[in-house]
Specification:
Enzyme class: hydrolase
Pfam families: Tyr_Deacylase (PF02580)
GO molecular function, one term: tRNA binding
Number of strands: 8
Structural class: alpha/beta
EC number: 3.1.1.96, 3.1.1.-
CATH topology: D-tyrosyl-trna(Tyr) Deacylase, Chain: A
Strand content: 35-45%
Shape: globular
Radius of gyration: 15 Å
Number of domains: 1
CATH class: Alpha Beta
Keywords: Cytoplasm, Hydrolase, RNA-binding, tRNA-binding
Helix content: 10-25%
């Protein structure tokens, strides 16, 4: 599985006129399941997203995770948005191939599992809507962006 995480001051996702998820300081994670991914891959990726140290400590070093973004135990928000295009094969030609992405039904199952697992481990989890045309707004803090991937 893949997650593109961005440290944000705020972020939201909208489907049509409806806001489906909105957070203050925290992480926006664009999440993609690839062919062959399993729940074990999702478990590893959730742990990595929640534990990845991208927030500054008192010394100004990136040393704090979203679960403790101020060093005093305050959790930041986690906005999860499905994005199958992260699995694109861009090696040849001028048009991406999405063959590496999980089929839609499997992608949705793994994304839903990812969200449920994150909600069981973190108090502030918002989401987009799988398969919908979404408008994602964010204020990238830094900017700080990381590509995370887990595989078997």
């Amino acid at each position: 599985m893949i997650a593109l995480i961005q440290r944000v001051a705020q972020a939201s996702v909208r489907v049509g006129e409806r806001i489906t998820g909105e957070i203050g300081p925290g992480l926006l994670a664009l999440v993609c399941a690839e062919r062959g991914d399993t729940e074990a891959d999702a478990d590893k990726l959730v742990a990595k997203v929640l534990g990845y140290r991208v927030f500054s400590d008192a010394a100004g070093k990136m040393n704090l995770p979203v679960t403790n973004l101020d060093g005093a135990g305050r959790a930041g928000g986690l906005l999860l948005v499905s994005q199958f295009t992260l699995a694109a094969d861009t090696d040849s030609g001028l048009r991406p191939s999405f063959t590496p992405a999980a089929p839609p039904d499997e992608g949705q199952r793994l994304f839903d599992y990812f969200v449920a697992t994150a909600r069981a481990r973190h108090p502030i989890v918002e989401t987009g809507e799988f398969g919908a045309a979404m408008q994602v707004s964010l204020v990238n803090d830094g900017p700080v962006t990381f590509w995370l991937r887990t595989r078997g």
